[in-house]
Write a structure and sequence with these properties.
Radius of gyration: 26 Å
Largest sheet: 8 strands, parallel
Structural class: alpha/beta
CATH class of the largest domain: Alpha Beta
Number of helices: 17
Strand content: 15-25%
CATH topology of the largest domain: TIM Barrel
Strand order of the largest sheet: 10-9-8-7-6-3-12-11
CATH architecture of the largest domain: Alpha-Beta Barrel
Shape: globular
CATH superfamily of the largest domain: Dihydropteroate synthase-like
Helix content: 40-55%
Length: about 450
């Protein structure tokens, strides 16, 4: 039976050391209860507490990390069937397949696309994370391409049935903790030995969900924790059924042999890049932990990244933009200075209208915990005594000689207080509606 956060907290060491990644034992206990953390993260928990908490605190679906450092990507860690119930935690990791049979030009093209496909949105960098390298019978080339992929900043999946080829590749990228693909009934012990030697996550593959569960159980008995599941299906409807079954059994029945993320291969399920993207989109929505495409094309990857962002954004928290200074249109020291809140929709509307005005400007974004301007003002988060220190500390005074701050018309009520708090600055009241910003800027700041 699952324990509450308070029940778990009573068994914690109460050191509040922060070594688990959160500042207090209470916060850590709450994460354990929610399935967002694992007991192993606490170095001081007693053996007695471990015994009592081991089964109660383990997340129903384990978080598996592939890669290290900046290239690390996490899959799994989910605690709900539907996003509106709480939130989804680890976005479906996207990558592409490189076979050793491909020509050098094709390999280099995929690696180049992997490095270049980067999109900035709401303060986040959206990008693919993985490269799956598939052995086609040349162990030396397999190891060489794996090294190239790792050097390109990718988390690597090594795909081979040849143990010698796998050893050669691990000799090059083993320290980067690639995902080994795949342990089957025929090679389970040998592949597990390699995974254990290099401390890498491992995939189990079979033709049925039940067979996958049996293989994962054998690995768990050997002490493995980082496992990825592949049910072997390469048809849309059966694979969708398998993924839903795995998620339900793991979450609703706490069936541990299936409490791991799944890997999907749209590259093996469709004949065209567009169809691959449709398959990938299906499993971004329905429980795919990893999805591998045959290639990375911006026109297809970008929509998938946006879909992923929307689905894996916490519905209980508004999307926000990072606080700071945003130059729009190469502003100079005489360009106007505007300010708004960090609610992403507000930022995109305001920045878009400023850009449309063709008046180079500085846009200050204040952290209002994701609230829009009027809501933030009502909550005391877009007020003079918070805006003034931010303006002074932001560094905007070093970038411009302008000492006039344009505030949203909806917050006109704070203008008097803000002029008192912000000595040396004049406060101008801008439009109430974003659509009126271009006309306002052209009228007031174009000679």
């Amino acid at each position: 039976m699952a324990l509450s956060g308070i029940q778990i907290f009573k068994l914690m060491p109460k050191k509040n050391c922060g070594e688990c990644g959160v500042p207090t034992c209470l916060a850590f206990a709450m994460n354990l209860a929610a399935g967002k953390a694992e007991l192993d993260l606490c170095p001081y928990v007693s053996d007695d507490a471990k015994e009592k908490l081991a089964s109660a605190s383990a997340p129903p679906i384990r978080t598996v990390q592939i890669g290290v450092g900046d290239a690390a990507v996490k899959a799994g860690g989910e605690t709900v069937l539907f996003r509106h119930e709480k939130t989804f935690n680890n976005p479906t990791a996207l990558g592409c397949l490189i076979a050793t049979s491909e020509a050098d030009k094709a390999v280099d093209g995929k690696l180049k696309a992997f490095k270049e496909l980067r999109y900035e949105r709401v303060g986040l960098t959206l990008k693919p994370e993985l490269i799956a390298v598939k052995d086609s019978g040349d162990p030396a080339r397999f190891a060489k391409i794996a090294k190239k992929a790792s050097d390109a900043g990718a988390a690597v999946i090594l795909m081979s049935d040849n143990l010698d080829a796998m050893k050669a590749a691990l000799g090059q990228v083993g320290k980067a903790k690639p995902l080994l693909y795949a342990a089957t009934a025929a090679n389970l012990d040998a592949m597990a030995a390699l995974a254990k030697e290099f401390d890498c996550p491992i995939t189990v593959k079979a033709d049925k969900v039940g067979d996958v569960a049996r293989l994962s159980s054998k690995l768990v008995e050997q002490g493995f924790k980082d496992i990825v599941l592949d049910t072997g299906s390469r048809e849309l409807a059966p694979l969708l059924r398998d993924n839903v079954m795995i998620r339900r059994l793991a979450l609703e029945n706490l069936y541990r042999p299936l409490g791991f993320p799944t890997i999907i291969f749209p590259c093996e399920m469709a004949d065209t890049p567009t169809d691959e993207a449709l398959v990938a989109g299906t499993f971004i929505s329905k429980y795919g932990g990893i999805a591998i495409l045959s290639d990375l094309r911006g026109e297809l990857v970008f929509p998938l990244l946006l879909q992923r962002l929307n689905i894996f954004t916490d519905p209980q928290r508004p999307m926000t933009t990072e606080q700071g200074i945003y130059p729009i249109g190469n502003p100079t020291e005489s360009s106007p200075v505007l300010i708004t809140s960090n609610f992403s929709l507000t930022y995109f509307i305001v920045s878009g209208e400023v850009e449309a005005s063709r008046v180079p400007s500085w846009l200050l974004v204040l952290n209002t915990d994701g609230l829009s301007v009027l809501t933030a003002w009502a909550a005391g988060k877009f007020v003079a005594d918070l805006i003034a220190p931010f303006v002074k500390k932001s560094g905007i005074e070093e970038k411009t000689k302008t000492r006039k701050l344009v505030i949203p018309g909806a917050a006109a009520i704070i203008s008097g207080d803000l002029e008192e708090e912000l000595s040396g600055w004049e406060v101008a009241i801008g439009p109430r509606e974003g659509a009126h910003i271009p006309a306002y800027l052209r009228q007031n700041y174009v000679a």
